[in-house]
Amino acid sequence: MSTFTIFLILIVVVAFLLVVVIMVQNPKGGGLSSSFGGGGTQQLGGVKKTTDFLDKSTWTLATLLLVLILISNVAIDRGGASADSKALDPDTQVTQPLPEATPLPATNNTATPADSTGN
């Protein structure tokens, strides 16, 4: 398994975890933190601490995802070929063969303009 494949798997896993953490949060203050609070009358573990954990985990996963994506660029196997484009080299002329012309099928259209108008 190549290094790039390992990075790709890590990127997919981190992206999935980031989606899960974001979906657990509720922008109006509900979500997971309100279920631990018991509707605001009773606190089990503290609502503020749950919100802080979800917020910190979101930022951590987002930063990790960005770093993995940037580092994976280094791990891409380029096959030993030059990274420069052949289109930018003025000395190189790439010619492609033209496709063979196919003859159009013969049609038996013997209608005159008077016939096509219904006269």
Automatic annotation (TrEMBL):
Keyword Coiled coil attached: no
Organism domain of life: Bacteria
Entry annotated with the keyword Protein transport: yes
One of the record's GO cellular component terms: plasma membrane
Bilayer disposition of the protein: Multi-pass membrane protein
Single GO MF annotation: protein-transporting ATPase activity
Signal peptide: none
GO biological process: intracellular protein transmembrane transport; protein secretion; protein transport by the Sec complex
Chain spans, region Disordered: 81-119
NCBIfam families: secG
Protein name, entry field: Protein-export membrane protein SecG
Species name: Algibacter marinivivus
